[in-house]
Amino acid sequence: MDNITHSIKEGCGNPMCNNAYCKSNPEHSSISENEMGDFVVLTAINEYKECCKFITPKQIYSMTPNDVFQLPIEAYLNDNSLKASFRDFPDNCSSRPKGFEYINHQSIFLFMNFLFNVSNPETIKKVFNSISLVQPEQRVLFLCVPYQTKYHNYYGALFKLITENPINKEVIHQFLCQMSPEHLRQVHFLVHSFLDEMFKQGSVQRSNKYPFMIYALRLFKILYEMNIANEFIDYKSFYVYSINIKREWSDDFDLFFKNKEGLLSYSFIIELYTRVLVVHEENRCEQQLTLSGAIQNNFFELFSPYLELRIDRDNLLLSSLNSLVNKRPIDLKKELKIKFIGEVGVDQGGVSKEWFSLIVKELFKVDFGMFTYNNKTRQFWFCSFADDLQDFKLIGIVLGLAIYNNIILDISFPSILYKKLLDIPLTFDDYNILDPEVYNSLMQLKEMSKVDDVSSLQLTFEAVQNYFDENRSYELIPGGRDIIVTNQNLQLYLDRYADFYCTSSVQKQFDAFKQGFRQVVSSPLLLSMRPEELELVICGTKEYDFDALERNAKYKDYTPNSPQIKYFWEIAKSLTLEQKKKLLIFVTSNDRVPVGGLGNLIFFIDRYGDPEKFPTASTCFNALHLPPYENKEIMKEKLLFAIENAVGFGLA
After folding, report:
1. H or E element in which residue 339 lies
2. φ/ψ (deg, to 5) at 107
């Protein structure tokens, strides 16, 4: 009866209490002092209902692990208790909190960590079993549990209970959005650890055999999308490196081609190098389907596994464009074979590499007029005055061909290009990437507007471009020549100015470029990449790790312990960065490092040639022909001369 009296007079402290007589219940029934005695007795006899137990952040912060161990855990894991717990209710709270109002995430994480660290497995099992009895919107609280390998099998069921109701996606998002970056990283660790352990155990070689994977991936995708909007962790932290390229992918592709949910629907968790290999496997499957169709329709004799182009070296661009522009997308994804008209030779990779190199150099010549070059950023951008749109379409096709032929291109675009290719909207701040100098000037205007009136500068809504020493003016908005920039319309001016240079002034050129690129690249596995990832696939990395190159190197008539091989790697690792690039050009015809680093570059060294001769190379096979020099000094002298004078030494 004391408990009932306390509830009536003081309340239990829970604004979400449902007990009709509890003062904390915003909808409680008032009882006068005269009625109190009889009411308490009758309630105690007939319908006594104890107010739900709940735990406040303040209580948690003062707890010790032993206090948690002694708690009647089950009493705190029912639906009503969870609704009230972990909230910092304001004094005299007079209404029921909505959603996750007043929730204190730090207290949830602390409590769950205490619980998992001091409880025995049976108690933890009860905790997991209790989740199914809780209303869906309260289950998200259990995203704050720590990951412990010994409870691995329970987490899959937890993720299922949290995500199986489609309506709950919004609840999950709402709950996570209120978390600090530190707490989001803890939830990320929970889901990532579960997925990593699952793939390590090999229990998901086939996606359709392990449905819990999908529930974890749904949750991980919510975190991934939140991270895109407001980064709380490096995007590479979403990679699950235990996904093995040697896994059985047939079921994954079967689901993928049928637009059904599977691992490839969440390709952001696949490390980039492995994902590129998966893209090639996807293409192989598509080519196989095309071949099967050709056989069934008696067109087999017309089917070629290669994209064969006959190119006139003296008319490189036109012959390349004519050879490519009308090809079917499925044909553009085939392995490229180049035949230069009038020249002897079979393309085993080297001729194609040369074609890519020649066409990129031609198209990116500043005097050719397709692109402008920023000397400070050392990057190219579309020339708004260029009017041969077919050439832009050609370079777009070339970028796509490079992806499917494992060619790293020596091009340098600002990263906004890859955003635009992936249909990611640009912002004013993206202009900083295109032209940092002008961007900083615009930011000075913004700072000026805080203390002064920018209208004093007499700026108008115009942009000026120089065309053959002639300045041409363009209105940023209708009638812009007559509209003065003021503090009130400054942000509009900044946005339109950035949009003009990033988008509207080069819209025709970019659209043609994108059309060519998309003619080759249509796979969701590529188009769902981040801009940084797509840039790496096309342009490679800048990490020249020669230790990784050595670990993956193959030898013929040498061994890793041969004196000449030891000499070579000692020399190679001591080279300057520019010399290392020249060595790569000499052997592979490219100084760019492929996705995954030099450890994923095929690199052969064979014993070939007279010790009096210089080293040579076969760029078709990334092979260095290294004579058996008798000491390191001679080898270094010969090798440096060869790479510094590479033209004429390579045997394509």
Report:
1. strand 335-340
2. -70, -35
DSSP annotation of 541 reads B
Distance CA(63)–CA(424), nearest Å, equals: 48
When pLDDT is averaged across residues 184-190 and rounded to a whole number, the result is: 97
The two tokens of residue 193 are 């650890």
- CATH code of 546-644, in short, is 3.30.2410.10
| pLDDT tens-digit map of 471-486 | 889 999 999 999 999 9
DSSP track, 46-72: H---PPPP---HHHHHT--HHHHHTS-
- Give the range among 24-38, 109-123, 540-554 with minimum mean pLDDT: 24-38
Residue 119 has a pLDDT of 81
pLDDT digits (tens, 9 = 90+) for 626-647: 999 999 999 999 999 999 886 4
Active site residue 12: no
CA dist list (Å): 510 to 374, 387, 393, 539 = 18, 11, 9, 19
Lay out the sheet containing 623-626: strands in order across.
554-556, 604-607, 623-626, 616-618
pTM score, two decimals? 0.84
Please compute the mean of the pLDDT values over residues 244-255 and round it to a whole number. Answer: 80
DSSP line for 419-481 = HHHTTPPP-GGGHHHH-HHHHHHHHHHHHHTTTS-GGGG--BSEEEEEETTEEEEEESSTTGG
| Nearest Cα to Cα of residue 543 among 600, 587, 588, 589 | 600
Q: Does 209 score more than 80 pLDDT?
A: no
Question: Over the stretch 595-612, which tens digit does the pLDDT of each residue have?
Answer: 888 988 889 999 988 899
Give 297: exposed, middle or buried? Use CB within 10 Å, 0-12, 13-18, 19+.
exposed
Residues 6+ apart with CB under 8 A from 405: 335, 336, 352, 356
* 117 in Cβ contact with 148 (< 8 Å): no
In this structure, of 20-24, 377-381, 408-412, 543-547, the range with the lowest mean pLDDT score is: 20-24
Size of the chain, expressed as the number of residues it contains: 652
Cα–Cα distance measured from residue 452 to residue 218, given in angstroms and rounded to the nearest whole number: 50
**Which residue, chain included where needed, has tokens 């700026």?**
459
- Catalytic residue (one of 17, 383, 502, 620): 620
**In 86-232, which ranges are continuous DSSP H helix?**
105-118, 121-130, 136-139, 152-163, 168-177, 181-200, 212-229
Q: Directed axis angle between helix 272-296 and helix 531-539, to 10°?
A: 70
Q: Please report, for the chain, the start and end positions of each structural domain, with discontinuous segments joined by +.
A: 2-46, 57-276, 546-644
